[in-house]
Amino acid sequence: MFSKKLIWAFLFIFIFLSITALLENMPAPKNKRVYEAILPYFPYKITKELGGVDIVNKRTGKDLDIANAQVYLAYDAMLKKWGEKHLKVEGNKLHILDDNGTVIKTLSLNQKELAWVKEFFKK
């Protein structure tokens, strides 16, 4: 009824689409030291739930109910949007600001870290 060629074609199409979906939904690479220094001030966090992972607002405790396949992309997008207002680069220093624009923390960055901040946050 089905030829072996047709079965192999379906298998290759399925593998191709799976790899494409995986690569499309991967988060952007991050600089570990700078990323970990910023996260305590970022008002969202990723939590594990029974059905997968979700983003939770740290201030209110409310879940954002985003599809599992899109959680990391949405988290990166929210981090970038938050960074527009709450991160400021001056020379080789990164200032983390609160909601009022007051400097909470300052990080000294090397060239590699500075390049990541400028690329990731478009600063």
Automatic annotation (TrEMBL):
<keyword id="KW-0472">Membrane</keyword>
<keyword id="KW-1133">Transmembrane helix</keyword>
<feature type="transmembrane region" description="Helical">
    <location>
        <begin position="6"/>
        <end position="23"/>
    </location>
</feature>
<protein>
    <submittedName>
        <fullName>Uncharacterized protein</fullName>
    </submittedName>
</protein>
<keyword id="KW-0812">Transmembrane</keyword>
